[in-house]
Amino acid sequence: MASRKMLSFKRAIVFAVFFLIAFILLRRSHTNASDPEPFRKPPPKPAAANDQHAGAKHDPSTTSYTPETDTVLKDKPVPAQKAIQDMSKMSLYDKLAYQYPYDVESKFPAYIWQTWKWTPANGEFNFRDQEASWTMQHPGFVHEVITDQVAVHLIRLLYAPVPEVLEAYNALPQPVLKADFFRYLILLARGGIYSDIDTFAIRSALEWIPDSVPKESIGLVIGIEADPDRPDWKEWYSRRIQFCQWTIQSKPGHPVLRDLVARITQETLKRKREGLFVSKEKSVVEFTGPAVWTDTIFDYFNDPRYFDMKTSQGNISYLNFTGIVSPKKVGDVVVLPITSFSPGVQQMGAKDYDDPMAFVKHDFEGTWKPESERHIGATG
Questions:
Q1: 96 closest CA partner among 163, 41, 152
Q2: Which of 21, 235, 274, 321 is paired with 335 by a 20 to 30 Å CA distance?
Q3: CA distance 369 to 366
Q4: Which among 176, 130, 223 has a CA at the least distance from the CA of 368?
Q5: CB-hemisphere CA count at 13 Å for 160?
Q6: Helices (H), strands (E): how many in the chain?
Q7: pLDDT at position 326
Q8: Is the pTM of this model over 0.90?
Q9: Distance, CA of 334 to CA of 328 (rounded, Å)
């Protein structure tokens, strides 16, 4: 009897060990089958290997979508995890690139950013019709009217990891300079649409990019402010073709905004050390306004780090945009004709407000007011 009990006990142990081993093997086989595949090796950097910039190349001569334009972007692997790096040893440009990465294939964020000294809830807010037009044309979007006080804290929150930017923003002595800088900063960090408070949304931003152009191939939408085809254009405008910055749509981290924020930050800190900022109103245009905005865009179009210049017929210049009446795609940028953001100005080929290409109406309510009347939301 005792031997039978001993045998049953041994047999139970054997069965228990067998089932335990079988369970472990079965679990391991399922785990291996569901393990993620190893990430592919990132593609090599562009030709300028010693440069700090990094990005996908685009065909600068493209006026309509071609699959080849986005080959590099589609083959780019997605990293599993962003390694924490020591930002103190990075250049300003690299800090911005690390902190606010750019993904052209992401969606345009559904944000509308505007600035003014009062919110729509305040009785002294005088742009209710303009502000409401953006909400009506963009149901489901987050629409924020940022006051001066909120802007300071928002920039402090978004750019805490990049103290140079905070120092530059706080050092700007004139509200109009802060107003310009803020729009670039908010779009770089969060993306979406920035538009001056005295603008009307005629059509939804969902109509700004032509249906023939995949939205996952576009990261920046801009419009032409001025196309002065006259001998004395320099007396009226800073550039032969001038891109407007009262309305901009962007995905977060776009290289144009990254470069522009770096430029303004470095120039501001330089002027702070020298004790000289702005002596005339026109220099505001060159410092933070449409002149430096336009220059940065053209520099991007002609940058071999982002565009394959070997296939280009020459540098991209105002000649590529003067007189255009329909959107033009250059790499990951859509350039809209002057009618889109400047309809009804009755010059430079701009058509009226009822034109199909008219998207935004600008009232120019606050343009070049005395500095004592300017604030972060003032238009420029």
A1: 163
A2: 235
A3: 6
A4: 176
A5: 5
A6: 11, 10
A7: 96
A8: no
A9: 6
Residues 36-66 pLDDT 10s: 333 233 333 333 333 333 334 543 333 333 3
Long-range contacts of range 231-238, CB-CB < 8 Å, 24 or more positions apart? 238/282, 238/285, 238/286, 238/290, 238/291, 238/294
DSSP per position, 94-113: HHHHHHS---TTSPPP-EEE
For position 374, what pLDDT does the model report?
35
Residue 120 scores a pLDDT above 90: yes
- The single-letter DSSP state of residue 142 is E
| Alpha-carbon span 221 to 218, nearest angstrom | 8
**What rounded mean pLDDT belongs to the chain?**
80
Residues 106-121: b if buried by 16+ CB within 10 A, e if exposed:
eebbbbbbbbbbbeee
Q: Over the range 343-371, which residues count as b (16 or more CB within 10 Å of their CB) and which as e? A: bebeebbbbeeebebbbbbbeeebeeeee
DSSP string over 350-361:
---TTSTT--EE
Answer with the residue of higher pLDDT: 173 or 81: 173
Joined together, the tokens standing for residue 33 give 């089958």
SS3 content of the chain, % helix, strand, coil (to 5): 40, 10, 45
Lowest mean pLDDT among 215-229, 245-259, 311-325: 311-325
Copy the structure tokens of residue 189. 């960090």
DSSP string, 173-189: -SHHHHHHHHHHHHHHH
Who's near 236: CB < 8 A, 6+ residues apart? Answer: 226, 228
- CA 161 to CA 154: how far, in whole Å? 13
What's the burial of 193, exposed, middle or buried (CB within 10 Å: 0-12/13-18/19+)? buried
> Which of 55, 88, 38, 93 is closest to 262 using CA atoms?
93
Q: Please give the full DSSP string across 60-92, using - where no structure is assigned.
A: TT-SS--GGGGHHHHHPPPPSS-----GGGS-H
Please tell me the predicted confidence (pLDDT) of residue 204: 97
pLDDT, residue 16, reads 53
Amino acid identity, position 30: H
Please write the tens of the pLDDT for every residue from 229-276. Answer: 888 998 888 899 999 999 999 999 999 999 999 999 999 999 999 888
Q: How far is CA 162 from CA 176, 202, 344, in A?
A: 22, 37, 41
Structure tokens belonging to residue 301? 């179009």
Question: What is the Cα–Cα distance from 206 to 105, expressed in whole angstroms?
Answer: 16
